[in-house]
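Explain the record.
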Amino acid sequence: MTRHEGEAQSIAQGEGRKTIEGETPAEGHFDDRSSTTPAPRDPSDTLHGCQRILILGRTGSGKTTLARELAAAIGVRHVELDALYFGPSFCTAPLPVLRDRTSAAIAGDRWVTDGNKSAVRDLVWPRADTVIWLDYPLVVCLWRLARRALWRTSVIKAQAAETDGKAGLPRQFLLAAKGVLKALRSHKGQHREYPEMFAKQENQHLAVVRLRSPRATRRWLAHVARPNLPSTGC
């Protein structure tokens, strides 16, 4: 067993699931199993058989962006959990409302969703069959959070200039600070929590891909989505 294989198996065991460390398999990948044995799903190489995909990752990892791009590439619905939770001016939905919205949103047969919310994990994880875990270095997420905060602040400032008010700026700065603190708290927590959760019996139905860098994610997306993308004539 190679070191790479050992690391992968330490995260997720069981038939029909596989965790990779961020590298896309080479072209022409195949295995020599009997045709009478059902092939396990391998989302590191193909999304064939992956109907309901959950994108996980710490704050600032780009979960929603990847979920949106992946859903468009394979032609399924994108369910953004944050959009079910946050309303106008960043007000939040009560927990019963969030759970009702989530149950309705994931009732379909095929979708891609993103989010780490533990309040609806018992609804989303049993319905999902595939997990894409964006396990990036902390510095990557903090840099992305900083860019997001600057963009949101510029939007708020533009709106304030139009309305001669700056009521939204303090709240925006508070949200940016909360995002940074959340990323810091979740950095070690997810490294410990997710592998333990993937190993639980009730989650053995999940096929898991672990991507460790934005570059690995771009390569993976290009690989698995290529047959579904329209031809550009190039």
Summary: The beta strands are 52-57, 77-80, 111-114, 130-134, 207-211.
